[in-house]
Structures are given as C-alpha cells and as structure tokens.
C-alpha cells in the first residue's frame, strides 16, 4: 500500500518493496540506475558512474525538461546512512544547492522487505522566481518513481 502526505512545500510518499534494505539502498546509491527510477523522465544519464559512498559526495546527472530543455545538475549528498537513508540536494554546476532535496528513508519490514519513504522537499527555496516552478514532480510522479524502484528490485 502506498501512502502520500503533502504540504505546500513537500511531498512524501511511502510504500513497501519486496527487497531488503541493503539491496534497496545499493540501487538508490547507484546514479547510473537513476534514469530507471525516474517516472518523470527528466533524468537522462549519470556522468559520475560511481556509487555514492559518503556524505558530501557529489554526483552529476544529465537532465531534460520541457521548460528548460537539456541541463546538468550536481547533486550534493546531504544524508548518508548505509541501508537506512540517502538524500541529496541538486544544484546548477558550480553553484550551491538551490534549496530542494530528495531523501529516501528505508525501514526493514519482515525478513526481506523495505518500507521506502521518499520525500521531495522544496521548502529551502527562497527565490520567488524559482519557486514558481515547484514542484517539478507531483505526488503521483513521486509514487510512480517508487513503483519503478519496486520493479527494478523484483
């Protein structure tokens, strides 16, 4: 079952996946697999080709949106708790993160399951011009991305 909570500046979606936290974390920590997990289709490819290994890592992604066309993001790892939580804050190349984050929390369920909670939060954005473009992904899109995660781990 999927649960959804929203505020005016965040979307949080949870669902149970039939894979242990270790496998789930390993997949999320591999930027090369992120295009497979993105229901929005915005993530095109990783330029990093290395697993996320620690707090402070930066991984680079090629992106695309109808509004902005092709662009690149540098994703700064802000949460790194092996097999428990992983999160990042996107930024334009060479810039500080803009104020939005993606954070996965993983809780074991039984012997081989994981309750995955994905929080997309843009509460740190203070630029009113930029804020008008958020959220770039709605609750259905976040939920669909968790469905893709479950499929990738099946």
Give a short synopsis of this structure:
This protein has 154 residues and is of the alpha+beta class.
Spans of at least 5 consecutive residues whose pLDDT stays below 50 are: none
Q: Can you tell me the CATH superfamily?
A: START domain
Number of strands: 8
Largest sheet composition: 8 strands, antiparallel
The CA-CA distance between the termini, in Å, is 16 Å
Structural class: alpha+beta
Q: What's the CATH class, please? A: Alpha Beta
What is the number of helical segments per DSSP (H or I, 4+ residues)? Answer: 4
State the assembly state of the protein chains. Answer: single chain
Order of SSEs, N→C?
A: EEHHEEEEEEHH
Overall geometry comes to globular
Task: Give a structural overview.
It is a single chain. This protein is of the alpha+beta class and 154 residues long. The protein has a single domain (3-153), classed as Alpha-D-Glucose-1,6-Bisphosphate, Chain A, domain 4. It is 20% helix and 41% strand. It has helices spanning 21-28, 34-37, 128-131, 139-153, and strands at 3-7, 10-17, 43-46, 58-65, 69-81, 85-91, 101-109, 113-121. Strands 1-2-8-7-6-5-4-3 form an eight-stranded antiparallel sheet, with helices on one face. The longest helix is centred in the C-terminal third of the chain and has 15 residues, at 139-153. It is globular and about 45 Å long. The mean pLDDT is 97.
Features:
Alpha-D-Glucose-1,6-Bisphosphate, Chain A, domain 4, 8 strands, 4 helices, 154 residues, alpha+beta, 20% helix, eight-stranded antiparallel β-sheet
